[in-house]
Specification:
Belongs to the DSD1 family. It is a single chain. By secondary structure, the protein is of the alpha/beta class. The protein folds into two domains: 194 residues, Alanine racemase (TIM Barrel, Alpha-Beta Barrel), CATH 3.20.20.10; 123 residues, Beta Barrel (Lyase, Ornithine Decarboxylase, Chain A, domain 1), CATH 2.40.37. 31% of the residues lie in helices and 23% in strands. The chain has twelve helices and 17 strands. The strands form two sheets. Strands 2-9-8-7-6-5-4-3 form an eight-stranded parallel beta sheet. It has a six-stranded antiparallel barrel with strand order 10-11-14-13-12-15. Helix 5 links the parallel strand 4 and strand 5. The longest helix has 24 residues.
């Protein structure tokens, strides 16, 4: 009986885009490698370490091509990710979601196994819980204070010196302050290059301000961490920042293309689907990829170009004129022309293979348990990379 690694290799060798079962997740390795090289080179020019966020990939095989070294550094959004990547030898990790007390024992277990795992927090209550657990275990858990740079989600306001100091003091009573961290989540809704550049500068300025206030209060603050895919690609300076976290840049998606961070032909993931029916009087082509394959993410709905549930391409990944997945049931996808299009609905016989580019690579990836890897215009499945989910 084949072990899992051998089975995946054997399966890949027997498959092509025209024979593999659908729907399935396709990864263009050439595009992925190009995307990774692009951001690495940019961070090197700006003098900042890249700490890639692995929440998009959730795959050891993909992570090894994204990280700058086998041990990291890297960022995770779940402890399941931390545990999976730790087993693969990744030992420099930041858990970039606010820590809750019930998860601290898992953090300690990872640290006891040799993983330098830091946590994120933005309240005195969290800091006290981390400090107490650190004292109990005899292990000073390092933590980063999350900074709110744009009102998008969580974090301490960068100028709130009193709260920053209170959190740092509570943390240092057993734990360890590693630094500050922020994420310009509002940049995903920025319109135009100037708006993304402004978001990048706001992100940088906020996290540097918070670090400065903590240092002036007598606390070491070695790590100043920023990061989002849009700001990483548009920041003009990262003075005062020590590392940049970004995740979706590895694959990109239609949301990123819609705000101008990438081109359509930079998008490295797609869902392979098969035509299973027609409703000509309605202008519909039916495929076997519904929201269970694409996700329900409609992230382009508020952009200038609404891509429905995904942009339809031929089997080689070339976009087809104004063809989108406009509606999605659980297992049925409905392909139509984009509203207002003057193009003609193409004749796509039953059994035709299509690739659909996703709105949100993270959400679509989460619907699948593996990547079927191809190289550029190649038809052969070069490998099947397992991916995982869970928390």
């Amino acid at each position: 009986m084949l072990d899992e690694k051998t089975r995946y290799a054997a399966d890949a060798g027997a498959q092509t885009l025209r024979t593999v079962g659908t729907p399935c997740l396709i990864l263009d390795q050439d595009r992925m490698d190009r995307n990774v090289a692009r951001l690495r080179e940019r961070m090197e020019r700006l003098g900042v370490q890249l700490r890639p966020h692995l929440k998009t990939a959730k795959s050891v095989d993909a992570a090894r091509r994204v990280m700058t070294a086998p041990a990291g550094p890297a960022t995770v959004s779940t402890l399941k990710e931390a545990e999976q990547f730790a087993r693969a030898g990744v030992t420099d990790l930041t858990y970039a979601v606010g820590i809750s007390p019930d998860k601290i024992d898992r953090v300690l277990a990872l640290r006891a196994s040799g993983v330098d795992l830091s946590v994120t927090l933005d309240t005195v209550e969290q800091a006290r819980a981390v400090a107490e657990a650190s004292r109990r275990a005899g292990d000073r858990i390092p933590a980063l204070i999350e900074i709110d740079c744009d009102g998008h989600r969580s974090g301490v306001l960068p100028g709130d010196r009193a709260l920053l100091v209170d959190i740092a003091q509570a943390l240092e009573d057993g734990g360890s302050l590693r630094g500050v961290l922020t994420h310009a989540g509002a940049s995903y809704g920025a319109i135009g290059d100037d708006a993304i550049r402004a978001a990048a500068e706001g992100e940088r300025a906020a996290v540097v301000q918070a670090a400065t206030l903590l240092r002036e209060a007598g606390f070491d603050c070695p790590v100043v961490s920023a990061g989002s895919t849009p700001t990483a690609h548009f920041a003009e300076t990262l003075d005062g920042v020590t590392e940049m976290r970004a995740g979706v840049f590895v694959f990109f998606d239609l949301v990123m293309a819609g705000i101008g961070v990438c081109a359509i032909d930079d998008i490295a993931v797609s869902v392979l689907a098969t035509v299973i029916g027609h409703q000509p009087e309605k202008g519909w082509i039916l495929v076997d990829a519904g929201w269970m394959a694409m996700s329900r993410d409609r992230g382009t709905a508020k952009q200038a170009v609404d891509q429905g549930y995904g942009l339809v391409c031929d089997v080689n990944g070339q976009p087809m004129d104004d063809l989108i997945l406009s509606e999605a049931n659980q297992e049925h996808g409905i392909i139509t022309l984009r509203p207002g299009s003057t193009a003609s609905l193409p004749d796509l016989p039953i059994g035709t293979r299509l690739r659909i580019l996703p709105n949100h690579a993270c959400a679509t990836g989460a619907q699948h348990d593996s990547y079927h890897v191809v190289s550029g215009q190649g038809d052969r499945i070069e490998a099947v990379w397992p991916r995982f989910g869970g928390w």
